[in-house]
Structures are given as structure tokens and as C-alpha cells.
Structure prediction request, 250 residues.
Amino acid sequence: MRVLVCDDEPLARDRMRRMLERIPATLCVGEAENGQELLERVPSVYPDIILLDIRMPGMDGLQAASRLSESDSPPAIIFCTAYDEHAIAAFKVNAVDYLLKPVRQEDLEKALSKAGRVNKAQMLAVRRETGVAQPEQANAKEREYISVRSRKGIDLIAVADVRYFLADQKYVTVRHSQGETLLDETLKELETEFGDRFLRVHRNALVALSYIEALEHKGNQFYLRIQGVEERLAVSRRHASSVKKLLQSL
Prediction:
């Protein structure tokens, strides 16, 4: 989950960022000091979820959330505030949750889990609207780990740690935080199982949505910048338009 933190207090932002670092498959993609700066940052970092303070100078959190709710597929909003009198107003702008400061780690994790379920439903709706291919059939229970054969025996790779799958002839390369591993599965099988977490960007590539940092355009080619990966991953012409629309809608 790509999370953007908006709070006018630097110490509060630092604390929230440290809490996010303890949560697997969660990435802090940026910070903002007020509502106006938040609105300017959202189109460039594509957050799934925004942790939003309410009382801030200039445009406050409620005003910013109201503006964001006007978009077709707004990020999920979790308000984090020291004041409880704004709860009713917060839910009127479709907030997923309302946490009182000091926010506890356990409460933050529960709120993010709830927001992630909401965002997943939005993702499927955007896929339908933009024409991005959806998985043919999602398994009732997705694997949390992928098993691969190695000289040591069987290694387990956490799906949450996978940056992308890249097909090359009959094998698929799995790129993760520890490097690359060959997998004896087809890209089609992986897309069918994990299509709600990975995006097809090329006939031979599936990219983890949670690790996409930006879509870049060089010459006549689009590339994805992926967290923790130096090289850029090419986006095919066939998928470029739908991928761009999808990322702009999140």
C-alpha cells in the first residue's frame, strides 16, 4: 500500500513514517504540510491511502478530503487528529477511519487493513473503466509465499516482497529485495492468482502495484520506476494508455 502522510507538525510526520516502516507491504511515498500541498503531491506519487491531520494552517484536512472526494477514484482517507469533535464531518467526506493522536501502532495497522480493502474494490472498478485486463478468476486464498527450487532445496519468497515478474521463454524471473530468482510458473498463472496486486504492463511483465513509484516517458517509450530497483521496466505501447489512466486514478 502506497501511503502519503499529511500533517503540519514535522515530529508527527516523522513518527507516522516510522510506524509505517514496521508494517509489511506498506510504503510511505511522500509527505505534505497542509491540504494545498497534499493536493499538489497526490497526482505525482499515486497514494493508495492518505493519513491526514485535520487542523492545519491554510487548507485543513477536511477541505482537502472534500476536494479529493470529487475525483473518480480518490485515495482512501484515514484522519489522524488530536480532536474528536470532527468525527462526523470526517465521515461525511468518506473517510475510512478516524484515529485519535497519539496514534497507536495496532490501531494504525487495523485502519490500513480496512483502507486496503476499500482501495482494492476501487482498483477493480478502475480496471473495468480503463480497460486494464483483470484476472480471469481470483483464487479464494492467494499464496503469501512462492516456493522455488534452489541448490539448497526449497526457498520461500514472500509475495509482498516481489517487485515484478518478468517472463523469458519458458521461465519467469522473480525480482525481489534479495535479487532475482527463476520460477517454473507461467505469467498467465501468476496474473490469474495475483491480478489484484500486480499490474500487467507488457506481454512479458507483471509489476507489483505497491512498489510502483512513477511512470516516466522517454522518447517514444514509457518506463516504470520501481522502488528498490535501479533499472526501469518498459511499458508496452499496447498497455501504456491504460496503465497511465489507472495510475492517475489511484
User: Anything to note?
Assistant: The chain has a mean pLDDT of 82. The first strand starts at residue 2 and ends at 6. Residues 145-249 form a domain with the OB fold (Dihydrolipoamide Acetyltransferase, E2P) fold (CATH 2.40.50.1020).
